[in-house]
Design a protein that fits this description.
about 10% strand, alpha/beta, about 45% helix, elongated, 11 strands, 12 helices, four-stranded parallel beta sheet, single chain, five-stranded parallel beta sheet
Length: about 350
């Protein structure tokens, strides 16, 4: 059986150095790390993860909790890809747990990851409210980071984006392009992100002196199908509009199907805007104007905070992450453009 000592001899380093490399210690030089990894490959060494976990009280695993309602979509793909890539860069393994359909399910997922001895946990919550998340952080010694929620008592344990202000900016852009009758497809009911983006829509109208028409606000559920159905309901209502914003790109793409089926040209008859800047947005016809959410940067800082906590370093609260408007071809000047 190949041992860690065999790897150390092959790499020309101490057994302790091999152990530090396998533990993801950032203070081992890149040159030494490369020697160790090359020696591992050449010898075929496979560490006994259970034994190492028992000996070091570290599993080198980081847990991620996401509700399965996000699984079937490009936003989750980006979130998972970035998390897995960056976790691997830190020499650690990612374990995914399903938050399923309730706050109790999300709590059970946390306990599942704790039972697996995960060194740290990332929560992308759907059902747990901020008070519950604050309490969970206080109850466990394992480092926990919350993504896409703003916490007050533990501001250094969260990363969040300025969804409301970004929506204000996006809707203001439509208004400045000459659109006053702007339809809005909301996200899933009960979602804090959906509530923030709807609030941003309402705030933008108020700031520009436009009256909110509740008939132009249509409920969606984040999926393309829900966007298509929302646009169909709006068209059937006969309420006039020159622009439409969906709370995410998936619903905007679904809405485009309904608009095209009704003979509406994009953007000549209806300007269309999404949110999130998924990869297919720029390949949509016409390319979709949207709001870019810095998912990669958010996950990068999330992992950096966790690793710092694991290494006993002091951490500070991060500033919110701001999205940016991506102008493409799906928005044209509206009837009130001066």
């Amino acid at each position: 059986m190949i041992t860690m000592l065999d790897v150390a001899r092959k790499a020309g380093v101490s057994k302790a150095t091999v152990s530090r490399v396998l533990a993801g210690n950032r203070y081992v030089s890149k040159t030494t790390q490369q020697k160790v990894f090359q020696a591992i490959e050449e010898t075929g060494y496979r560490p006994n993860l259970l034994a190492r976990s028992l000996a070091t009280q570290k599993s080198q695993n980081i847990g991620l909790i996401v509700t399965h309602s996000l699984f079937n979509g490009p936003y989750f793909s980006e979130l998972l890809y970035q998390t897995a890539t960056l976790t691997n860069n830190y020499g650690r393994q990612l374990i995914l747990a399903d938050g399923k359909t309730s706050a109790d399910d999300e709590r059970a997922a946390i306990e599942f990851l704790l039972d697996l001895r995960c060194d740290a946990i990332i929560i992308y919550p759907r059902f747990l409210d901020t008070d519950a998340l604050e309490a969970i952080i206080e109850q466990h010694e394992v480092p926990i980071m919350v993504v896409n929620r703003q916490l007050q008592r533990h501001a250094d344990h969260c990363v969040w984006a300025t969804h409301q202000q970004n929506t204000v900016d996006a809707v203001s852009y439509l208004i400045e392009r000459g659109h006053h009758d702007i339809a809005f497809i909301t996200g899933l009911a009960g979602s804090p992100t959906a509530a923030a983006r709807l609030a941003g829509y309402q705030q933008a109208l108020t700031q520009h002196g436009l009256k909110l028409n509740p008939d132009l606000v249509i409920q969606g559920a984040w999926t393309p199908n829900s966007g298509q159905q929302a646009a169909q309901r709006l068209l059937e209502s006969g309420t006039p509009f020159s622009a439409m914003m969906a709370s995410n790109d998936d619903m905007a793409i679904g809405a485009a199907l309904a608009l095209n089926a009704a003979g509406k040209r994009l953007p000549q008859d209806v300007s269309l805007m999404g949110f999130d800047d998924i990869r297919m947005a720029e390949f949509f016809l016409p390319p979709l104007t949207t709001v870019h959410v810095p998912v990669a940067e958010m996950i990068q800082h999330t992992l950096a905070q966790l690793v710092a906590m694991l290494e006993g370093e002091e951490i500070a609260a991060l500033p919110p992450f701001s999205g940016r408007l991506i102008e493409r071809a799906s928005v044209a000047d509206g009837p009130f453009k001066s």
